[in-house]
Amino acid sequence: MTEDPAGRLVVTLDLDGVTDKAGLMDRCARDLALPDWFGRNWDALADSLADPSLWPEGARDRGVVLVVRGWRAYAEERPDEWTVAEEVFAEATDRGPGLFVTLGPG
Q: What range(s) does the Barstar (barnase inhibitor) domain occupy (predicted)?
């Protein structure tokens, strides 16, 4: 993990090769080190992203920048699902103090 100029931890969610919701949820579980009980649904993802107790060590005090990269193929393959994913990212950002989600290279 790296940090941004403001000292927030930067975590990358790599969606390269993801073409459906199940793949997105699996990648979130892996890249974000979500617990085994992560429900792999939209509500569970929003809750997990917004919960500072699930962030990497030290991130609660510093904040997290989640960079979503490799997203474009998924967005093109499943535009309705991608719209929901974007809403989940936005909701989590609104609920999670110190969480910032940004789209990186597609």
A: 10-94
List strands edge to edge, sheet with 9-14: 2-3, 9-14, 64-69, 99-103
Per the DSSP assignment, residues forming a β-bridge with 73 are: none
Distances (CA, A) of 91 to 2, 6, 49, 50, 77: 24, 22, 9, 8, 23
pLDDT at 96 over 70: no
Q: Tokens 């919701």 — which residue?
A: 21
CA distance linking residue 22 with residue 38, whole number of Å: 13
Closest CA to 74 of 30, 32, 13, 29: 13
Identify the residue whose tokens are 């499943």. 78
Contact status, residue 15 vs residue 74, Cβ threshold 8 Å: yes
